[in-house]
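Quarterly update from the structural biology core.
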Amino acid sequence: MSSTEPLHIGRYEIRAELGRGGMAVVYRGFDPQTRREVAVKVLPPQFLNDPDFRTRFEREAHTVARLEHSAIVPLYDYGEDRGQLYFVMRLMPGGSLADRLQHGPLPVDEVSRIITRLAPALDEAHAHGVVHRDLKPGNILFDNRGDPYISDFGIAKIRESGSTFSTSGVIGTPAYMSPEQARGERDLTGRSDIYALGTILFEMLTGKPPYEADTPMGLALRHIMEPVPRILEVKPDLPGGCSTIIERAMAKDAPARYATVAEMANALAAVVRGETPTQRPKREDRPPTVRAAPPSTRALPVKPATKPDRPRRGTPRWAWALLGGAALLVVFIAAAIIVGSLVIPALTAALPSPDSAALTNTQVAALTDTAQSQLAATQQAQTQAATDAQATIDASADLATTHAELAAQMTANAG
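Predicted structure, tokenized:
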């Protein structure tokens, strides 16, 4: 143990550091009263003066204490020692699911066993109005018998009326984040956790996450915009029913997902038995919804309460490409106006003089009507082109605004 690590926190002896995350450090500790090893989670000193982090840390202790379930890492104690907030939990010597996935995908029957054990724990949390918001392989821990547990409810959103805690940033891990969470929506439900568990299921079965990108913002955008990956194209030897489960668990429209984690676990158990899982939710589980339009025809479905100033910097290449297309439309409109100005005099010049004996009055009137019709058609085309150009420019600007908002949210979360 390094000289910078504490020797004691409260009555607990600190023996080694187990891990370090975005908001806490976890130590292997020893409780001299009960004579057992424990896990001690401590808020780092640099965050002690941050009321936001203190609130989240204290809320985690209260949340875990309230959620008593055999598949949730149990809380033994919590308190404050010399200005340091800490809580004491059961030591999980079996490591994490992330550790296991470093060696490749898991067998389907083992994946089913893990999901089946975790399902009632998550459903219990959802029944109490608690959404985990950060399900990922690193937060699924194993005891010495290999049984899985859910840990780290520190950023769970407690959906209670009258709660005074709020945050404006996007909290979670982008690789496992539901589309609605990536968009920064605050009124999340348990189906957001079901989406995250679907991404974990995909990784357990294939050995790789469903989406990959170079940046957290890129990952969040892929969860929002891209279709659900076809798992059988990644690992063709999986049972066919796995594709149905992934597509439903990771549906972009939250009401189209499983209503409970137990329903998802039962579907996977059916696949293990060689049965075909239900492809669509029951009618009573599917409230009427409007399917989202393809992302290529609309801006991202983000509706901020107050429209921010449009970003002047950081616009991605694809947004510049859209703006470039709009500029080409404007050039086309200008060309149409010039052509129109040339066509009309030419048609007028083509009309014969009143003294011409070769043309009758009827022929002159016909030529005049033709010129007027062509002029009206040209003006209508110019008006429609201007409307389309303005719509394209507005869509491009809105898309750039959404990109900047996601970047700001991810930067705030990383900070």
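Confidence is low (pLDDT under 50) at residues 158-168, 281-314, 346-364.
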